[in-house]
Amino acid sequence: MYRFLLSRQWVLTTLLALVLIPVMVELGFWQLHRHEHRVAQNTLIADNLAAEPAPVEELTSPGHTVPRKDYWRQVEATGTFDTEHEVVVRRRTNADDQVGFHVLTPFVLTDGKVLLVNRGWVPAASDQKAFPKVPAPPAGEVTVVGRLMADETTSGSGIKDLEGLPPRQTMLIDSEEQAKALGKQVLGGYVELTTPEPKGGSPELIGSPDHDSIGPHMAYAIQWWLFAGGVPVGWWVMVRRERRDRESAAESTPAEDVPAPA
């Protein structure tokens, strides 16, 4: 009745179905893990943004690698901006996806250490090699508040660290690289400035990270599991159809004439 399942075509079809089921189940769990990661990250961002600003030197120090649990943590520091050694970070976009620069200004703390402050986005000059027009930060001693971030890397950001750039331009925000250029102790990581807000709205402050959207990963996980459940159902439907077609073909074939006995 089902001997056709032993044919080469049906053996291959069955093997393919047996392979697809665990693959689709695994893809579903992969999407589930991405959903769980996104939910955990949203919780981390929300909690760190809601926390009271902590003194920056409680969370980082020269040579320190900022751990993920401290990403977006609100920190504060008191000191003065060093615009003489200000640099810009290339190929950065603003809220409208316009390409320009991020302004990275050393902030000298009262104890002499340096905190890198990303003051926000400015448009690029007509000549990409030229230093853009950057509004000055507040003069004198000031207290800044911002979101603590880890040093940028090529592996983490996908941005290639190019060499031979114009003076005072960089591709990545790297505290160790800036420490060598400044000849001073630089705290690990950097801060995305939130306070004080710049006069005239420039540089354009970096917006808070999205921590409301959870993405479509859970829906994708359910889809993959439904696909996995549909494979054996589809296989069985195909088998029943094949059997029915074979039976119909057999019934429609006329029987051979049998000679009458002498």
TrEMBL record:
Q: Which UniProt keywords apply?
A: Cell membrane, Membrane, Transmembrane, Transmembrane helix
Instruction: Provide the topology term for how it sits in the membrane.
Output: Multi-pass membrane protein
The answer on whether this UniProt entry bears the keyword Transmembrane reads yes
Is RNA-binding among this UniProt entry's keywords? no
InterPro entries with a match to the protein in the record: Surf1/Shy1, Surf1/Surf4
Q: Which residues form a coiled coil?
A: none
Q: Which domain of life is it from?
A: Bacteria
A Pfam family:
SURF1
Where's it found, cell-wise? Cell membrane; Membrane
Q: Which residues cross the membrane?
A: 218-238
Name the predominant localization. membrane
What PANTHER family does the record point to? Answer: SURFEIT LOCUS PROTEIN (PTHR23427), SURFEIT LOCUS PROTEIN 1 (PTHR23427:SF2)
Q: Which family does it belong to?
A: Belongs to the SURF1 family.
* Protein name in the entry: SURF1-like protein
